[in-house]
What does this fold into?
Amino acid sequence: MIDLGISKMALIGAVALVVIGPEKLPRVARTVGTLLGKAQRYVNDVKAEVNRSMELDELRKMKDSVEGAARDVEQSIRDGAQDVHNDLSGLDTVTPATSYEATPVYPVYRHPKKNWRLKQGAVPHWYKARNKVRSRAQSGAARVARHRPRPGA
It folds into this structure.
């Protein structure tokens, strides 16, 4: 990279002061600083993207090696199971050879039985009656009719 010492920066500043002028120099310095900052951010973004792609390639290689090892283990287990099956079928002459592959058994879904009615039913009726808790829903018309004064009374 370019080796800029204090003497070279002072020389560049003096030339810029003469060429640009003292009134425009702060604005030009701000613009140059902004452009240098943008350039540094761009370079950092490019570096980060390259690093991410390299890590992604490494992860893909690792995934492929793990999948290969898993396939090898699975094949060796199948070979061993086939050997055992052949040995057992050779010994058992009375019944025909059957496949011993286990089918997975999944648990049956059971509802957690969260029922708000059970919680409401846990409160005793005497407590509801004393605190005037409504136990039955009533329509608006029925409520008005219930509290309407009777015509003969």
Summary: The radius of gyration is 43 Å. Residues 6-90 form one domain. The CA atoms of residues 141 and 147 lie 10 Å apart.
